[in-house]
Amino acid sequence: MIFFITFGLIGLLALGVPVAFALGGSALFGYLYNAGPNAVLSVISRRMMFGLNNFLLLAIPLFILSAKIMNSSKITSKIFGFAHSVVGFLPGGLGHANVVASLIFAGMSGAAVVDAAGLGQIELEAMEDGGYDKDFSVAITAASSTIGPIFPPSLPMVVFGFMSGVSVGRLFLGGVVPGLIMTAILMLLVSWYAHRRGYPRLGLLSVKGLAKSLMDAILPLLTPVILLGGIWSGAFTPTEAAAIAVLYALVIGKIALKELGFKEIKQVFIDTARETAVIGIIVAASGFYGWILMRSGLTVRIANSLMTLSDNPLIIFLVVNLFLLVIGCFLDPTVAILILTPILMPVIQRVGIDPVHFGVVMVLNLMIGLLTPPFGIVLFVMQQVSGLSYGRVVKATAPFLLPLFIVLVLIVIFPDLVIGLPNLLYAGR
Protein backbone atom coordinates (compact mmCIF):
# COMPACT_ATOMS: atom_id res chain seq x y z
CA MET A 1 0.00 0.00 0.00
CA ILE A 2 2.79 2.40 0.92
CA PHE A 3 4.51 1.58 -2.37
CA PHE A 4 1.49 2.73 -4.38
CA ILE A 5 0.91 5.99 -2.50
CA THR A 6 4.57 7.03 -2.59
CA PHE A 7 6.30 5.64 -5.68
CA GLY A 8 3.00 5.53 -7.53
CA LEU A 9 2.50 9.25 -6.97
CA ILE A 10 6.10 10.07 -7.91
CA GLY A 11 5.86 7.93 -11.03
CA LEU A 12 2.59 9.49 -12.21
CA LEU A 13 3.92 13.02 -11.64
CA ALA A 14 7.11 12.14 -13.52
CA LEU A 15 4.99 10.94 -16.46
CA GLY A 16 3.28 14.33 -16.58
CA VAL A 17 -0.07 13.18 -15.22
CA PRO A 18 -2.03 16.18 -13.82
CA VAL A 19 -1.55 16.55 -10.06
CA ALA A 20 -5.19 15.82 -9.14
CA PHE A 21 -5.24 12.59 -11.14
CA ALA A 22 -1.80 11.57 -9.83
CA LEU A 23 -2.99 12.03 -6.24
CA GLY A 24 -6.31 10.28 -6.82
CA GLY A 25 -4.83 7.49 -8.96
CA SER A 26 -2.05 6.55 -6.55
CA ALA A 27 -4.47 6.63 -3.62
CA LEU A 28 -6.96 4.49 -5.56
CA PHE A 29 -4.33 1.85 -6.37
CA GLY A 30 -3.25 1.78 -2.74
CA TYR A 31 -6.83 1.45 -1.49
CA LEU A 32 -7.74 -1.34 -3.93
CA TYR A 33 -4.55 -3.24 -3.11
CA ASN A 34 -5.20 -2.98 0.63
CA ALA A 35 -8.96 -3.61 0.62
CA GLY A 36 -9.03 -6.25 -2.13
CA PRO A 37 -12.50 -7.72 -2.72
CA ASN A 38 -13.86 -5.78 0.29
CA ALA A 39 -13.26 -2.42 -1.39
CA VAL A 40 -16.22 -0.03 -1.21
CA LEU A 41 -15.88 2.43 -4.08
CA SER A 42 -18.38 4.88 -2.58
CA VAL A 43 -15.73 5.58 0.08
CA ILE A 44 -13.70 7.40 -2.57
CA SER A 45 -16.40 9.93 -3.38
CA ARG A 46 -17.25 10.41 0.30
CA ARG A 47 -13.63 11.11 1.19
CA MET A 48 -13.23 13.51 -1.71
CA MET A 49 -16.35 15.41 -0.71
CA PHE A 50 -15.18 15.43 2.91
CA GLY A 51 -11.95 17.08 1.73
CA LEU A 52 -13.96 19.94 0.21
CA ASN A 53 -16.49 20.32 3.00
CA ASN A 54 -14.77 23.09 4.91
CA PHE A 55 -15.90 26.70 5.29
CA LEU A 56 -12.29 27.86 5.39
CA LEU A 57 -11.71 26.81 1.77
CA LEU A 58 -14.09 29.52 0.56
CA ALA A 59 -11.33 32.02 1.31
CA ILE A 60 -9.23 30.69 -1.58
CA PRO A 61 -11.50 31.63 -4.53
CA LEU A 62 -12.49 34.85 -2.79
CA PHE A 63 -8.90 36.06 -2.34
CA ILE A 64 -8.13 35.07 -5.94
CA LEU A 65 -11.19 37.02 -7.08
CA SER A 66 -10.28 40.14 -5.10
CA ALA A 67 -6.73 40.14 -6.49
CA LYS A 68 -7.97 39.76 -10.08
CA ILE A 69 -10.47 42.59 -9.61
CA MET A 70 -7.67 44.86 -8.38
CA ASN A 71 -5.48 43.95 -11.35
CA SER A 72 -8.31 44.59 -13.81
CA SER A 73 -9.22 47.95 -12.27
CA LYS A 74 -5.63 49.26 -12.50
CA ILE A 75 -5.33 49.53 -8.75
CA THR A 76 -1.88 47.96 -9.07
CA SER A 77 -0.57 50.94 -11.04
CA LYS A 78 -1.74 53.32 -8.30
CA ILE A 79 -0.02 51.17 -5.67
CA PHE A 80 3.24 51.21 -7.64
CA GLY A 81 2.97 54.98 -8.14
CA PHE A 82 2.53 55.53 -4.41
CA ALA A 83 5.44 53.23 -3.55
CA HIS A 84 7.67 55.12 -6.00
CA SER A 85 6.74 58.47 -4.51
CA VAL A 86 7.62 57.25 -1.00
CA VAL A 87 10.95 55.46 -1.63
CA GLY A 88 11.95 56.79 -5.06
CA PHE A 89 14.50 59.18 -3.51
CA LEU A 90 16.69 56.21 -2.49
CA PRO A 91 19.45 55.00 -4.86
CA GLY A 92 17.76 52.64 -7.28
CA GLY A 93 14.39 54.19 -6.42
CA LEU A 94 12.31 52.10 -8.84
CA GLY A 95 13.83 48.91 -7.43
CA HIS A 96 12.79 49.96 -3.93
CA ALA A 97 9.35 50.89 -5.23
CA ASN A 98 9.11 47.42 -6.74
CA VAL A 99 9.66 45.80 -3.33
CA VAL A 100 7.38 48.18 -1.39
CA ALA A 101 4.61 47.79 -3.97
CA SER A 102 4.80 44.01 -3.55
CA LEU A 103 4.50 44.41 0.23
CA ILE A 104 1.41 46.58 -0.20
CA PHE A 105 -0.12 44.29 -2.82
CA ALA A 106 0.59 41.33 -0.53
CA GLY A 107 -2.10 42.73 1.76
CA MET A 108 -4.62 42.18 -1.03
CA SER A 109 -3.62 39.16 -3.11
CA GLY A 110 -1.78 36.61 -0.95
CA ALA A 111 -0.25 34.86 -3.98
CA ALA A 112 3.19 35.21 -5.53
CA VAL A 113 2.06 34.37 -9.06
CA VAL A 114 -0.70 37.00 -8.93
CA ASP A 115 1.85 39.58 -7.78
CA ALA A 116 4.37 38.64 -10.47
CA ALA A 117 1.76 38.66 -13.24
CA GLY A 118 -0.21 41.69 -12.01
CA LEU A 119 2.43 44.12 -10.81
CA GLY A 120 5.19 42.56 -12.89
CA GLN A 121 4.30 44.11 -16.23
CA ILE A 122 3.87 47.58 -14.72
CA GLU A 123 7.13 47.35 -12.78
CA LEU A 124 9.20 46.03 -15.69
CA GLU A 125 7.97 48.73 -18.05
CA ALA A 126 8.67 51.50 -15.53
CA MET A 127 12.15 50.18 -14.72
CA GLU A 128 13.06 49.70 -18.39
CA ASP A 129 11.98 53.28 -19.15
CA GLY A 130 14.03 54.41 -16.13
CA GLY A 131 17.26 52.93 -17.52
CA TYR A 132 17.50 49.80 -15.36
CA ASP A 133 19.04 46.57 -16.66
CA LYS A 134 16.32 44.17 -17.71
CA ASP A 135 17.94 41.27 -15.85
CA PHE A 136 17.95 43.24 -12.60
CA SER A 137 14.35 44.36 -13.12
CA VAL A 138 13.20 40.78 -13.70
CA ALA A 139 15.14 39.49 -10.70
CA ILE A 140 13.81 42.01 -8.16
CA THR A 141 10.27 41.63 -9.50
CA ALA A 142 10.45 37.85 -9.12
CA ALA A 143 12.03 37.98 -5.65
CA SER A 144 9.66 40.62 -4.27
CA SER A 145 6.62 38.62 -5.44
CA THR A 146 7.40 36.01 -2.76
CA ILE A 147 6.46 38.53 -0.07
CA GLY A 148 2.80 38.08 -1.04
CA PRO A 149 2.29 34.61 0.47
CA ILE A 150 4.19 35.56 3.65
CA PHE A 151 2.67 38.94 4.53
CA PRO A 152 -1.06 38.54 5.26
CA PRO A 153 -3.44 37.58 3.83
CA SER A 154 -1.82 34.47 2.37
CA LEU A 155 -3.43 31.76 0.25
CA PRO A 156 -0.81 29.10 1.13
CA MET A 157 -1.39 29.79 4.83
CA VAL A 158 -5.13 29.30 4.34
CA VAL A 159 -4.36 25.91 2.80
CA PHE A 160 -1.95 25.04 5.62
CA GLY A 161 -4.51 26.10 8.22
CA PHE A 162 -7.11 23.89 6.52
CA MET A 163 -4.82 20.86 6.47
CA SER A 164 -3.34 21.30 9.96
CA GLY A 165 -6.22 22.79 11.95
CA VAL A 166 -4.02 25.74 12.97
CA SER A 167 -5.70 29.14 13.38
CA VAL A 168 -5.47 31.04 10.09
CA GLY A 169 -5.67 34.32 11.99
CA ARG A 170 -2.54 33.39 13.95
CA LEU A 171 -0.80 32.28 10.77
CA PHE A 172 -1.61 35.60 9.10
CA LEU A 173 -0.19 37.56 12.03
CA GLY A 174 2.82 35.24 12.16
CA GLY A 175 3.74 36.34 8.64
CA VAL A 176 3.79 40.08 9.40
CA VAL A 177 7.32 40.38 10.85
CA PRO A 178 8.95 37.93 8.38
CA GLY A 179 7.28 39.81 5.51
CA LEU A 180 8.69 43.12 6.76
CA ILE A 181 12.15 41.59 7.21
CA MET A 182 12.03 40.23 3.65
CA THR A 183 11.14 43.72 2.42
CA ALA A 184 14.01 45.34 4.33
CA ILE A 185 16.67 42.84 3.20
CA LEU A 186 15.57 42.99 -0.43
CA MET A 187 15.78 46.78 -0.28
CA LEU A 188 19.33 46.52 1.11
CA LEU A 189 20.25 44.35 -1.85
CA VAL A 190 18.67 46.87 -4.24
CA SER A 191 20.78 49.63 -2.64
CA TRP A 192 23.94 47.56 -3.14
CA TYR A 193 23.17 47.04 -6.83
CA ALA A 194 22.23 50.72 -7.22
CA HIS A 195 25.56 51.92 -5.84
CA ARG A 196 27.52 49.48 -8.00
CA ARG A 197 25.66 50.24 -11.22
CA GLY A 198 24.77 53.87 -10.69
CA TYR A 199 21.01 53.42 -10.90
CA PRO A 200 19.05 56.68 -10.74
CA ARG A 201 16.95 58.01 -7.92
CA LEU A 202 13.90 60.26 -7.81
CA GLY A 203 14.22 63.68 -6.24
CA LEU A 204 12.41 64.24 -2.98
CA LEU A 205 8.77 65.02 -3.60
CA SER A 206 7.13 67.99 -1.99
CA VAL A 207 4.64 67.46 0.80
CA LYS A 208 1.92 68.34 -1.67
CA GLY A 209 3.17 65.70 -4.13
CA LEU A 210 3.33 63.03 -1.45
CA ALA A 211 -0.15 63.93 -0.24
CA LYS A 212 -1.54 63.65 -3.78
CA SER A 213 0.12 60.26 -4.28
CA LEU A 214 -1.27 59.08 -0.94
CA MET A 215 -4.79 60.22 -1.77
CA ASP A 216 -4.64 58.40 -5.13
CA ALA A 217 -3.75 55.14 -3.40
CA ILE A 218 -5.47 55.54 -0.02
CA LEU A 219 -8.39 53.21 -0.73
CA PRO A 220 -6.21 50.24 -1.83
CA LEU A 221 -3.84 50.92 1.08
CA LEU A 222 -6.68 50.48 3.55
CA THR A 223 -7.33 46.90 2.40
CA PRO A 224 -4.77 45.11 4.62
CA VAL A 225 -5.68 47.38 7.55
CA ILE A 226 -9.35 46.42 7.26
CA LEU A 227 -8.66 42.71 6.80
CA LEU A 228 -6.07 42.29 9.57
CA GLY A 229 -7.91 44.58 11.95
CA GLY A 230 -11.16 42.70 11.44
CA ILE A 231 -9.57 39.27 11.91
CA TRP A 232 -7.62 40.29 15.00
CA SER A 233 -10.57 42.05 16.62
CA GLY A 234 -12.82 39.08 15.97
CA ALA A 235 -15.19 41.11 13.79
CA PHE A 236 -14.92 38.48 11.08
CA THR A 237 -13.19 35.21 10.24
CA PRO A 238 -10.48 34.85 7.57
CA THR A 239 -13.09 33.50 5.16
CA GLU A 240 -15.39 36.43 5.83
CA ALA A 241 -12.38 38.72 5.42
CA ALA A 242 -11.89 37.30 1.92
CA ALA A 243 -15.51 38.10 1.06
CA ILE A 244 -15.08 41.64 2.39
CA ALA A 245 -11.92 41.98 0.27
CA VAL A 246 -13.95 41.11 -2.85
CA LEU A 247 -16.68 43.59 -2.00
CA TYR A 248 -14.15 46.30 -1.20
CA ALA A 249 -12.24 45.68 -4.45
CA LEU A 250 -15.49 45.93 -6.42
CA VAL A 251 -16.42 49.19 -4.71
CA ILE A 252 -12.98 50.69 -5.40
CA GLY A 253 -12.79 49.50 -8.99
CA LYS A 254 -16.37 50.15 -10.06
CA ILE A 255 -17.52 53.12 -8.01
CA ALA A 256 -14.48 54.99 -6.68
CA LEU A 257 -12.08 54.68 -9.62
CA LYS A 258 -14.64 53.93 -12.34
CA GLU A 259 -12.06 51.69 -14.03
CA LEU A 260 -14.02 48.45 -13.92
CA GLY A 261 -16.76 47.73 -16.47
CA PHE A 262 -19.21 44.83 -16.55
CA LYS A 263 -17.23 43.19 -19.36
CA GLU A 264 -14.09 43.15 -17.19
CA ILE A 265 -16.05 41.91 -14.17
CA LYS A 266 -17.48 39.03 -16.22
CA GLN A 267 -14.03 37.99 -17.41
CA VAL A 268 -12.62 38.19 -13.89
CA PHE A 269 -15.33 35.86 -12.58
CA ILE A 270 -14.72 33.40 -15.43
CA ASP A 271 -10.96 33.35 -14.81
CA THR A 272 -11.49 32.92 -11.06
CA ALA A 273 -13.95 30.06 -11.59
CA ARG A 274 -11.45 28.30 -13.86
CA GLU A 275 -8.60 28.60 -11.35
CA THR A 276 -10.86 27.63 -8.44
CA ALA A 277 -12.03 24.51 -10.25
CA VAL A 278 -8.44 23.36 -10.71
CA ILE A 279 -7.63 23.96 -7.03
CA GLY A 280 -10.90 22.31 -5.97
CA ILE A 281 -10.15 19.09 -7.86
CA ILE A 282 -6.68 18.96 -6.32
CA VAL A 283 -8.07 19.53 -2.80
CA ALA A 284 -10.72 16.81 -3.29
CA ALA A 285 -8.11 14.32 -4.53
CA SER A 286 -5.78 15.23 -1.67
CA GLY A 287 -8.60 14.51 0.80
CA PHE A 288 -8.77 10.94 -0.43
CA TYR A 289 -4.97 10.69 -0.64
CA GLY A 290 -4.56 12.01 2.91
CA TRP A 291 -7.04 9.46 4.25
CA ILE A 292 -5.15 6.62 2.58
CA LEU A 293 -1.89 8.08 3.85
CA MET A 294 -3.11 7.96 7.44
CA ARG A 295 -4.44 4.38 7.04
CA SER A 296 -1.09 3.22 5.68
CA GLY A 297 0.75 4.30 8.83
CA LEU A 298 3.39 6.09 6.74
CA THR A 299 3.10 9.31 8.75
CA VAL A 300 3.90 7.46 11.98
CA ARG A 301 6.85 5.69 10.36
CA ILE A 302 8.29 8.95 9.05
CA ALA A 303 7.87 10.59 12.45
CA ASN A 304 9.62 7.69 14.17
CA SER A 305 12.43 7.72 11.59
CA LEU A 306 13.09 11.42 12.05
CA MET A 307 13.04 11.07 15.82
CA THR A 308 15.85 8.51 15.59
CA LEU A 309 18.09 11.15 13.99
CA SER A 310 18.13 13.41 17.03
CA ASP A 311 16.06 14.51 19.99
CA ASN A 312 17.03 18.13 19.34
CA PRO A 313 14.04 20.03 17.84
CA LEU A 314 16.39 22.39 15.95
CA ILE A 315 18.14 19.47 14.20
CA ILE A 316 14.79 17.95 13.24
CA PHE A 317 13.61 21.33 12.01
CA LEU A 318 16.73 21.80 9.87
CA VAL A 319 16.24 18.36 8.28
CA VAL A 320 12.60 19.18 7.53
CA ASN A 321 13.67 22.51 6.03
CA LEU A 322 16.14 20.84 3.69
CA PHE A 323 13.46 18.41 2.63
CA LEU A 324 11.00 21.23 1.94
CA LEU A 325 13.56 23.20 -0.06
CA VAL A 326 14.10 20.22 -2.34
CA ILE A 327 10.37 19.52 -2.67
CA GLY A 328 9.73 23.19 -3.47
CA CYS A 329 11.87 22.83 -6.61
CA PHE A 330 9.45 20.28 -8.05
CA LEU A 331 5.96 20.85 -6.61
CA ASP A 332 3.56 23.77 -6.60
CA PRO A 333 3.26 25.20 -3.04
CA THR A 334 -0.45 24.40 -2.72
CA VAL A 335 0.10 20.80 -3.80
CA ALA A 336 3.13 20.43 -1.53
CA ILE A 337 1.17 21.73 1.48
CA LEU A 338 -1.76 19.42 0.75
CA ILE A 339 0.50 16.36 0.47
CA LEU A 340 3.13 17.07 3.12
CA THR A 341 1.23 18.70 5.98
CA PRO A 342 -0.38 15.42 7.16
CA ILE A 343 3.05 13.76 6.98
CA LEU A 344 5.08 16.43 8.78
CA MET A 345 2.66 17.69 11.42
CA PRO A 346 3.02 14.58 13.66
CA VAL A 347 6.79 15.14 13.62
CA ILE A 348 6.44 18.83 14.44
CA GLN A 349 4.01 18.17 17.29
CA ARG A 350 6.15 15.42 18.74
CA VAL A 351 9.28 17.58 18.99
CA GLY A 352 7.34 20.55 20.41
CA ILE A 353 7.69 23.04 17.55
CA ASP A 354 4.92 25.65 17.50
CA PRO A 355 2.59 24.83 14.56
CA VAL A 356 2.23 28.53 13.65
CA HIS A 357 6.02 28.80 13.51
CA PHE A 358 6.21 25.71 11.35
CA GLY A 359 3.44 26.92 9.03
CA VAL A 360 5.19 30.20 8.22
CA VAL A 361 8.56 28.45 7.79
CA MET A 362 6.98 25.85 5.49
CA VAL A 363 5.37 28.52 3.31
CA LEU A 364 8.63 30.49 3.01
CA ASN A 365 10.50 27.33 2.02
CA LEU A 366 8.00 26.67 -0.73
CA MET A 367 8.09 30.31 -1.88
CA ILE A 368 11.83 29.94 -2.42
CA GLY A 369 10.92 26.96 -4.57
CA LEU A 370 8.94 29.29 -6.85
CA LEU A 371 12.26 30.90 -7.84
CA THR A 372 14.27 27.71 -8.31
CA PRO A 373 14.47 25.50 -11.41
CA PRO A 374 13.28 23.23 -12.85
CA PHE A 375 9.63 24.02 -12.05
CA GLY A 376 9.65 27.41 -10.31
CA ILE A 377 6.40 28.86 -11.64
CA VAL A 378 7.38 32.50 -10.99
CA LEU A 379 10.40 31.98 -13.26
CA PHE A 380 8.08 30.96 -16.09
CA VAL A 381 5.78 33.92 -15.39
CA MET A 382 8.71 36.33 -15.54
CA GLN A 383 9.92 34.69 -18.75
CA GLN A 384 6.51 35.30 -20.28
CA VAL A 385 6.19 38.87 -18.98
CA SER A 386 9.73 39.97 -19.82
CA GLY A 387 10.41 38.09 -23.03
CA LEU A 388 13.80 36.89 -21.73
CA SER A 389 14.92 33.29 -22.12
CA TYR A 390 14.27 30.91 -19.23
CA GLY A 391 18.00 30.42 -18.63
CA ARG A 392 18.58 34.17 -18.45
CA VAL A 393 15.73 34.61 -15.96
CA VAL A 394 17.16 31.83 -13.76
CA LYS A 395 20.65 33.36 -13.85
CA ALA A 396 19.38 36.85 -13.07
CA THR A 397 17.20 35.68 -10.18
CA ALA A 398 19.78 33.43 -8.47
CA PRO A 399 21.53 36.19 -6.40
CA PHE A 400 18.17 37.32 -5.05
CA LEU A 401 17.62 33.97 -3.40
CA LEU A 402 20.22 34.95 -0.78
CA PRO A 403 17.96 37.45 1.07
CA LEU A 404 15.20 34.86 1.18
CA PHE A 405 17.55 32.27 2.65
CA ILE A 406 18.72 34.80 5.25
CA VAL A 407 15.12 35.41 6.33
CA LEU A 408 14.47 31.65 6.43
CA VAL A 409 17.46 31.07 8.71
CA LEU A 410 16.42 33.96 10.97
CA ILE A 411 12.86 32.76 11.50
CA VAL A 412 13.98 29.17 12.06
CA ILE A 413 16.54 30.15 14.73
CA PHE A 414 14.42 32.91 16.31
CA PRO A 415 10.82 31.64 16.47
CA ASP A 416 9.64 34.80 18.26
CA LEU A 417 9.96 36.61 14.94
CA VAL A 418 6.97 34.51 13.86
CA ILE A 419 5.00 33.68 16.98
CA GLY A 420 5.70 36.84 18.98
CA LEU A 421 3.03 39.00 17.35
CA PRO A 422 0.19 36.42 17.34
CA ASN A 423 0.97 35.50 20.95
CA LEU A 424 0.89 39.17 21.91
CA LEU A 425 -2.33 40.04 20.10
CA TYR A 426 -4.13 36.82 20.97
CA ALA A 427 -3.00 36.83 24.62
CA GLY A 428 -5.82 35.74 26.88
CA ARG A 429 -7.97 34.37 24.07
UniProtKB/TrEMBL annotation:
Instruction: From the record, give the transmembrane residue ranges.
Output: 48-67, 79-97, 136-159, 171-194, 214-235, 241-257, 277-294, 314-344, 356-380, 400-426
Q: How does it sit in the membrane?
A: Multi-pass membrane protein
One GO term in the molecular function aspect is: transmembrane transporter activity
Chief site of localization: membrane
Location comes to: Cell inner membrane
Question: Which keywords, in A-to-Z order, does the entry hold?
Answer: Cell inner membrane, Cell membrane, Membrane, Transmembrane, Transmembrane helix
Under InterPro entries, the record lists: DctM, TRAP_DctM
Record's Gene Ontology CC terms?
Answer: plasma membrane
Q: Where is the TRAP C4-dicarboxylate transport system permease DctM subunit domain?
A: 8-416
The family database entries (NCBIfam families) matched by this protein are listed as: dctM
The identity of this protein, by name, is ABC transporter permease
Organism encoding this protein: Marispirochaeta aestuarii
